[in-house]
Task: structure prediction
Amino acid sequence: MGFVGMPLLFLKLIRTYGRKQLLFSMLPACALVFVLYLGAHYYYYASRTHPFHPYTQISPPAFDSIRKYPPPNTLRILTLGGSTTACNDLPPEERYPHLLQSHLQSAYPDLQIEVLNGAMDWYTSRHSLINYLTVYRDFRPHIVVVMHGINDICRSFSPPQLAIGEYKSDYSHYYGPAAYAAIPPTFERQLLRPFYRPPLSYWFDLFDQETDYPMDVYQSQEAFQKNLLALGQFIQRDSSHYILIGQPSLYKDSLTQDEYAHIQFGRQLCYSPINPINIRYPSPHSLGNAMRTYHSITKMVALHTNARYFPANQQLPKTLAYFSDDVHYTPKGAQTLATYIAEQLIGTQLIPRISQSLVRPSPSHSPETSQGY
Result:
């Protein structure tokens, strides 16, 4: 209606005020709009591109206050993953890596346990591979705990608001939250945006198609496996221990109405346009099958790299007491996950074996010249 009504209104104004008077009366308004647009343009690029990372899109966590070499008698654990490891929607003291450190510190009071959380929202197995090689291996972790799944699954798709072009195995098509860095919200795009999904999109949502996609639609399986294999090879080359976690999720065969209402990854992150106002997206059943397949890949990689695999996906009850949506946890869910991983690590007796080779405090010890193991 706006595009039809504006020309008619403009013609009426010309008849009423004349061309010359209308032109001179509009010039100040046009100049003001232009200045505001330039100001908004400057603000956007000054405020939004600063956190953008040219390789990983979002800057990884920085350990500026952490010494590169573990201090004496300190066992350092690095956790890698996406938002389900970062847990940025929870207070710092309720995030699973922090809780993992607390559990292990209680179990090994004679050691200093240090858990570094190197995860970030939206990160995939490829992000973890890049960040480990370029940043985190310098911190000499003794154990690296890796949990991936859902974000790699989402990279199989190319939703137009989050990606550019078709699927690419290096995930370079999927910009996620950094999409506006590649497709800036220019004036004309913002003007047309309401016509892509109208304000009354609730009614159009009724016509969106939830689809039971087969597994061949999830194109990132090979890339996921390749990334985890490469990550394991580099971790073990650095004499660190590789731990792979089966990512928990809410997906199950029978969801209650309330649980179904909390499932959102398919519609928000894995959709494909049918037409300008309707979309097609994977069903919870399809995403559940995908998660099981990616768990199998994770387990297979653990076997091929002699890593340890902890099936946490089998440990968290699939209820809203533990999950706030498809994969993110409530405080109870994060606590349960941390407890499970801690118990598995304690059960392997891995930490006592590593502790035998840790540098012990001594007057002559110089942590700056020791690797800590």
Remarks:
- The chain has two domains: 2-48, 53-361.
